[in-house]
């Protein structure tokens, strides 16, 4: 079964559900990762790397929820 990695905001449940429904009827396994969980340590970089390397494609959903997320530039 092919695998696709999808990065999204947890606030975009409707988009996640949309893509989940699309892939449900196929032989594609969608791996969803919420953008907000990455900096908190709830998702490790090792897991993300494994999921991306095991995927045939990667989608990054850049909605307004992600654009409005507070970030800091270091350095």
Please describe what this structure looks like.
- The chain has one domain.
- It is 39% helix and 24% strand.
- It has four helices and three strands, in the order βαβααβα.
- It has helices at 13-24, 37-40, 45-53, 64-67, and strands at 2-8, 28-34, 57-60.
- A three-stranded parallel beta sheet has the order 2-1-3, with helices on both faces.
- The chain is flat and about 35 Å long.
Oligomer: single chain
Principal-axes geometry comes out as flat
Radius of gyration: 13 Å
Class derived from helix and strand content: alpha/beta
In helices, the fraction of residues equals: 25-40%
Task: List descriptors.
75 residues; alpha/beta; 3-stranded parallel sheet; 3 strands; TIR domain-containing protein; Toll_tir_struct_dom_sf
């Amino acid at each position: 079964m092919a695998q696709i990695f999808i990065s999204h905001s947890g606030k975009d449940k409707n988009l996640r559900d949309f893509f989940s429904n699309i892939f449900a009827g196929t032989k594609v396994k969608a791996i969803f990762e919420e953008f907000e969980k990455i900096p908190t340590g709830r998702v490790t970089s090792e897991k993300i790397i494994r999921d991306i390397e095991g995927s045939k494609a990667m989608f990054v959903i850049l909605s307004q929820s992600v654009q409005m997320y507070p970030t800091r530039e270091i350095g």
